[in-house]
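Figure 3 (text version): C-alpha cells given as input.
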C-alpha cells in the first residue's frame, strides 16, 4: 500500500473503506478534501503530483480513496467523499440522475490499449479493436479481465459486447479470467500468464517503465478505445457534512490553465509523452475536431458535459 502524509490509498480487500472515510470526515475542515478516484489515475503517480502542487498553492490537503470508478461512485453516494474523479460515463450519468453529485467537468483523456505478450499467440497486433477481441476468442488465448465494475472493466465489457459476445457468458469460458482486482494487479497477472488484457495506457506505461511487466501494446488505436476522465462534486444537500466549497475549488483548479498544464505535462520527461491529455481547450476551441467529436459522443449527456439541472448553481464552470 502506497502511503504518504497527503495521500491515502484504500484497498477494499485490506481495510474497511467506509470506516476510514468516516474517520476522515469527522476531522474534516476547509483545509482537507477527500476525493474518491480510480486506480488508473493513482497508479501512474499523477494524483501525488496534483496533491503536492495543490497543497503548496492552496494550503489544502488532498486525500484519495483509490478504487475502481464504480466503487468510488458508490462511496461518494454514501457521503464518504467530497468529490469523485473517475472515467466511466455510463455510471457518471447514473450518479447525476440519482442526484448524488453534479458540477461535472471533463478534465482529461487518453486511450485504452489491448496489451499482451510480444509473442502474440492470437496474432492481433495492429488489428482493429473488435476484430482483435474476436481473434482472441476464436483462438482461446487467455484474457485477463479486471472484473471489478471499474471504468476499465465497463469499457472492456462494452468492447466485447460490440464484438458480438455476451460479457456475462464470457465468465464461463476457460480462457477468460476475471480477477476483481485493480489495474496494476491485472497487468501483473496478465504478465505472469502471458495473457491479453485491456489497460489504460497511463498505468501500462508506468508499470512497463518500472520493469514490473514486459507486455506489449498490440492494439492501441481507434475511437473504440477512447478513455475520458471527469470530476464531480458530491451533492451537499444530501450530505451537508461535506466540503462542497472545497470540491468546487478543486474542480476549478483541474479545469484552469494551471491544472490542465499540470495534467498535460505529467509523464512527458519520463516517458517521452504525456500519460494524459487535457480536454478543456480541446473542447472549447475544437482544436482537433474529430477527437472533440469523439469525446462529445462518448462522454457528453444531452449535448453537455453536465446538463444545467445537475450543475448545483456553478454556471461559471461552463462559460
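Below: residues designed for each position.
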Amino acid at each position: 500500500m502506497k502511503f504518504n502524509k497527503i495521500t491515502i490509498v484504500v484497498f477494499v480487500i485490506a481495510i474497511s473503506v467506509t470506516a476510514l472515510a468516516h474517520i476522515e470526515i469527522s476531522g474534516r475542515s476547509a483545509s482537507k478534501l477527500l476525493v474518491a478516484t480510480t486506480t488508473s489515475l493513482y497508479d501512474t503517480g499523477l494524483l501525488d503530483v496534483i496533491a503536492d502542487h495543490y497543497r503548496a498553492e492552496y494550503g489544502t490537503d488532498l486525500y484519495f480513496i483509490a478504487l475502481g470508478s464504480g466503487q468510488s461512485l458508490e462511496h461518494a453516494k454514501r457521503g464518504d467523499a467530497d468529490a469523485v474523479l473517475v472515467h466511466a460515463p455510463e455510471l457518471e450519468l447514473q450518479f447525476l440522475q440519482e442526484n448524488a453529485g453534479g458540477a461535472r467537468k471533463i478534465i482529461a483523456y487518453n486511450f485504452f490499449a489491448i496489451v499482451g505478450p510480444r509473442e502474440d499467440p492470437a496474432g492481433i497486433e495492429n488489428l482493429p479493436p473488435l476484430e482483435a477481441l474476436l481473434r482472441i476468442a476464436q483462438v482461446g488465448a487467455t484474457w485477463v479481465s479486471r472484473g471489478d465494475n471499474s471504468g476499465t472493466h465497463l469499457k472492456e465489457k462494452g468492447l466485447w459486447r460490440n464484438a458480438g459476445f455476451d460479457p456475462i457468458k464470457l465468465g464461463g469460458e476457460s480462457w477468460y479470467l476475471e480477477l476483481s482486482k485493480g489495474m496494476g494487479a491485472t497487468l501483473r497477472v496478465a504478465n505472469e500468464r502471458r495473457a491479453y488484457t485491456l489497460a489504460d495506457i497511463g498505468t501500462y506505461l508506468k508499470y512497463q517503465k518500472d520493469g514490473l511487466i514486459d507486455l506489449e501494446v498490440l492494439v492501441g488505436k481507434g475511437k473504440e478505445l477512447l478513455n475520458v476522465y471527469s470530476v464531480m462534486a458530491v451533492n451537499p444537500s444530501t450530505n451537508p457534512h461535506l466540503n462542497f466549497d472545497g470540491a468546487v475549488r478543486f474542480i476549478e483548479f483541474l479545469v484552469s490553465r494551471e491544472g490542465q498544464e499540470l495534467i498535460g505535462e505529467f509523464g512527458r520527461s519520463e516517458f517521452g509523452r504525456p500519460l494524459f491529455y487535457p480536454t478543456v481547450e480541446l473542447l472549447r476551441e475544437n482544436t482537433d475536431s474529430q477527437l472533440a467529436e469523439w469525446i462529445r459522443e462518448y462522454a457528453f449527456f444531452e449535448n453537455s458535459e453536465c446538463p444545467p439541472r445537475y450543475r448545483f448553481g456553478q454556471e461559471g464552470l461552463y462559460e
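The domain at 112-222 is CATH 3.40.190.10 (D-Maltodextrin-Binding Protein; domain 2).
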